[in-house]
Amino acid sequence: MVTVLIAILLPFICAALIPLLYRRLRRITHLGWFVLSVPFILFLLLARYIPQIAEGKTFIHTYEWVPSFNINFSTYLDGLSMIFGLLITGVGSLVILYSIFYLSTKESLHHFYCYLLLFMGAMLGVVFSDNLMVLYTFWELTSVSSFLLIAFWHHRKASRAGARKAMTITVFGGLSMLAGFLMLYVASGTFSIREIIANVEVIRDHTLFIPALILILIGAFTKSAQFPFHIWLPDAMEAPTPVSAYLHSATMVKAGIYLVARFSPVFGGEAVWFWLVSVIGLITLFWGSFNAVRQTDLKALLAFSTVSQLGLIMSLFGLGSVGHYYGYAENSILYTQASFAALFHLINHSTFKGALFMMVGIVDHEVGTRDIRRLGGLMALMPVTFTIAVIGSFSMAGLPPFNGFLSKEMFFGAVLTIRHVEAFSITDLGLLFPIVAWVASIFTFVYSMILISRTFFGKLQPEKMDKKPHEAPLGMLLSPIILCVFVVGIFFFPNVLGHYILEPAMASIYPTFPSTSELTPHIHAWHGINAELLMTLGVIIIGIFLFKTLNSWKPVYRIFSQRYAFNTYYNRMLEFSENSSTKLTNRYMTGNLTHYFVYIYVFFVALIAGYFIWSDTIAFDFAKDSTIESYELILVFVMMFAAVWMIFAKGRVTAMLLNGVLGYSIAFFFVIFRAPDLALTQLVVESVTTALFLLCFKYLPDLMPDASHKKVQWSKAVISTFVGATVTLVGLAVVHFDRFEPVSTYFNDSYELAGGSNIVNTILGDFRAFDTMLEVVVLLIAGLGVYTLTKLKPRKEETDHEN
């Protein structure tokens, strides 16, 4: 499908054009207006397919990439990928519109928008890829581009540290996920996600199925900031607010959620999957909401609230996996509603959390601080911003008439229903699910009230503010206002979203269920007085009480000393690894060239000679060897003489001339063995290197006598003897080695394979062309690095602001 390919490639193409066009564009208009057209056009293109996706259609297209390894660029548009595609492009459009008014023109805007488009294209690649290897490629590209975005204000130490932490943790998870993908390929024989889902019954009994499940979940947990990998998300708040509103509410942190949803048809129904996803999600939900209350920075508060909400969504997908265990049956439909609630809250969270991040950015931009202790009394001065804060916070707290209330009620319904499930021995622990969910929701209500009251109510403190507070311009308010319209609109018209967006996504999560309409409940704001409503009323009552008595019980956080915080352990682990690697490196990186050669030669002898000795593959048969001519013996003795004399040479020039004798003698051997092209190459290389070394060594002092201890000299002699013996052993044994098919048999058909009659030239020019190209690329990168270090200098203001 061309539209999906355009959606993936267009952000990358525009990102490549920005460095070429930004100087001209900034004379005409703000660069952001040009970038805004990219996600807006893509959003409209994807929206055209909503009716067809709602009818159950899917769009698949495959472009051959590396067919020999079964790696193809396969794009797949279905209900699940449509949700994420619309969020990536829709919220992306609003974030770019917001950034036009938020970021100063003095900022490096061309870098910012280039990084943002790279991230957008990478996220679209993740959600639209059907091939595991292609998905992994885009997955890691999201880590790289998010690193650049978080460290955008690179003159700040905290920004650099936050970017490093985010990349370290997410890349570690990505490598784990890659190992899981490879295991899944071994078990299924395909990289296609659709084919894996279609053959899931065949691979469930494979020994690698559970290890692949665990490794893939690690990748999802690290990207979506699940406990205990959540520590990178609060530090990533050092990024500009548009980045936080995009990466950490609607896109990057949802990549792990997408992975869990996409692989639910594969791993759903497994007890390991259920317990890991649901329990880790609930722990993350509680821990994030509990820690959000103690924060004094508005973005830090929102960061922990994001962790909490991500845990809520993750736990719902875990609970919904029970539906795969029972399959399509009358009672199992009840258990699939958790997945529906997860998808519903996924969209709701993107709307209210995006608006809240933008609101905090407005406060920071117009007041000059995000510190709750310095804020207060802003309601009268910033009424529109206050309204945005109320809508977003009340939705996050799960209050009507906002969309968060609907999905929070469904969440309560899911944790109550799971108590009655007999699978996976849930009945014994089922009561813990609603208890943890309810307690975490109380803390969610408390920090939502803190966000509103401490910022907009109370006494104005102008002396503690860096700027005179005033309302933001309309351009900065427009994006959060649009999100707030969705927050309210979804509450009143939820079934439009349910029919056109959520129902086809449920069909993607439960592909074996014949009826998708039964998977999509009719969403009501009022279900009468039931357990869910009573839980919500309890959240409000106890939440108000805890908020009013906050100062009396907040000292409980002192129990959780920073000494035992996860960040402390993370920092200790980094410090330990850095110190250990430094000590290890200093032990073998002595600066002595002799030591380095010893390491290389000892490893060479141990590996090669050890293999031949212990594998019992040494076989010599001199009877079939060719007759050695007298002139060949003369050449051998000349080379032996030159090699021995070179050891005792007192001058560098003499040593180099003797080394040249060895090289030219090898060239003569090539002539004798009827390989004139190799002989010519050897002569040219030897002549150039000999002349070059002679030119350099002429200006160096003479060699000093070796004053090292006799034991050292003897050790060098022993190592040299073993190296020579190993090379001789290889040369003799390789003629009769028959454990593997000779590589040369493949190149015998060089004319048919590459159209070259000279096999040596064909190997160098065709079969090794890719290798040669990479060598040239390495030289190019090294040259660019040298040029950058020698020609470019840091700006004075960057040096002055370094901290």
From TrEMBL:
Highest taxon of the lineage: Bacteria
A Pfam family assignment: MbhD
Residue span(s) of domain MrpA C-terminal/MbhD: 638-701
NADH-Ubiquinone oxidoreductase (complex I) chain 5 N-terminal domain segment(s): 67-113
Membrane topology summary: Multi-pass membrane protein
Keywords recorded for this protein, A-Z: Antiport, Cell membrane, Hydrogen ion transport, Ion transport, Membrane, Sodium, Sodium transport, Transmembrane, Transmembrane helix, Transport
Membrane-spanning ranges: 6-22, 31-50, 79-100, 112-128, 134-154, 166-188, 208-233, 245-261, 273-293, 300-320, 340-363, 375-397, 431-453, 474-493, 525-547, 596-614, 630-648, 655-673, 679-697, 717-737, 772-790
Domain MrpA C-terminal/MbhE as annotated: residue spans: 717-797
This protein's name: Na+/H+ antiporter subunit A
Lineage, broadest ranks: Bacteria, Bacillati, Bacillota, Bacilli, Bacillales
